[in-house]
Amino acid sequence: MKVLWLQSGGCGGCTQSLLCHEPRPLFDELRGAGIEFVWHPALSEASGEEALAILDDCASGRREFDVLCIEGAMLRGPNGSGKFHLMAGSGRPLTEWVQRLAERAKWVFAIGSCSAWGGFSANTPGNPLEACGLQYDTDTPGGLLGKAFRSSGGLPVVNLAGCPTHPGWIVDTLEKLALEGLSAADLDEVGRPLLYAEQLVHHGCPRNEFYEFKASAEKHSDLGCMMENLGCKGTQAHADCNTRPWNGVGSCLKGGYACIACTEPGFESPGHAFQETPKLAGIPVGLPTDMPKAWFVALAALSKSATPKRVRDNAVVDHTVVRPSVKKGGK
Question: Which residues are CB-neighbours of 306 under 8 A, at least 6 positions away?
């Protein structure tokens, strides 16, 4: 399976993330599944006229490829011309190259939240770059390719959202496509692969005991749950970050940082500081996606009344001060 990868308006962080794939080296893993890069701007030897010749052959149908991967937002400005971002040496807007290549690709992947939704490039005041995602403009279907776009493989754009996206999400989706095939049933409502988007970041969170008892952190160094005071959106974000650790060991929450829901459309513009929790009448505005407010209030009151001293005390310090008790005697 041949993959063609282009980078547009973004930081290149998704490529950097991809290179951290574990446990096997990235190219050994891909090669084992029969996957190879036709071209990648950072990982391929071809550059200059040689690279442009590869792209032109792919866009004109003279060279076959299967998957078009786009990293970074589509920059349509000024005035829809796309001239804010020209493909070096070609004189053509990158948006034009993407449209031509998307017509030839069997499948189109948006790599990262910038390519999926528009990301930070689309969040500048007034959006002077006219930035958008491949098939979404934040949470509105459309984007560069349009709501009705379907690749020749029959799928809409596959949105591997994340900022950056996890290397495992990219590799596993490519391997599933190569070895088993990918269908609409494998994607969620906004085109994210269910292999990572059917979970919430909350699942497997190391702070879940504190969440269950509503024992909340008060400052960033505390061990407690960060939802109530410090802006954590792990109960709303679709991803498996805590059950599929980054680099085998870590996640934002394990590192002491609140989840900012970077896989979700519009995450970059929450309307408040990332690590603050807006409240209405003392109740966090961003409750779990599938929990009615009244239930949450009742559960929180009950949980707090039953919080063990160990959990309550440990929630507001930066290291464990009360250990679980050791049961003495009996069964």
Answer: 213
Whole-prediction pTM value?
0.93
Q: How confident is the model at residue 5 (pLDDT cuts 50, 70, 90)?
A: very high
The per-residue pLDDT for 192 is 98
Which residues contact residue 9 at a Cβ distance below 8 angstroms, ignoring those fewer than 6 apart?
72, 73, 74, 75, 85, 114, 121, 129, 131
Of the candidates 207, 97, 74, 72, the residue with the CA atom closest to the CA atom of residue 146: 74
- What element of type H or E holds 75? strand 74-75
**Where a domain ends, among 145, 162, 195?**
195
Domain span including residue 252: 199-322
Among 141, 168, 195, the domain-final residue is 195
Q: Each residue of 28-43: pLDDT tens digit? A: 999 999 999 999 999 9
Q: Indicate if the pLDDT at residue 104 is higher than 90.
A: yes
Q: Coil, strand or helix: which one is 104?
A: helix
- Other residues' Cβ atoms within 10 Å of the Cβ of residue 189: 7
Closest C-alpha to 277, from 234, 245, 229, 310: 229
Element of type H or E holding 247 = none
3-class secondary structure, 121: helix
One DSSP character per residue, 275-323 reads T---EETTEESS--TTS-HHHHHHHHHHHHHT--HHHHHHTTSSS--SP
Q: Write down the pLDDT at residue 290.
A: 74
State the average pLDDT over residues 154-163: 98
Q: How confident is the model at residue 183 (pLDDT cuts 50, 70, 90)?
A: very high
Mean pLDDT (the chain, rounded): 94
Helix (H) or strand (E) holding 103: helix 94-104
The reply to whether 238 and 190 lie within a common domain is no
Q: What six digits make up the tokens of 308?
A: 């063990």
Residue 110 structure tokens: 């948006």
**CATH code assigned at 266:** 4.10.480.10
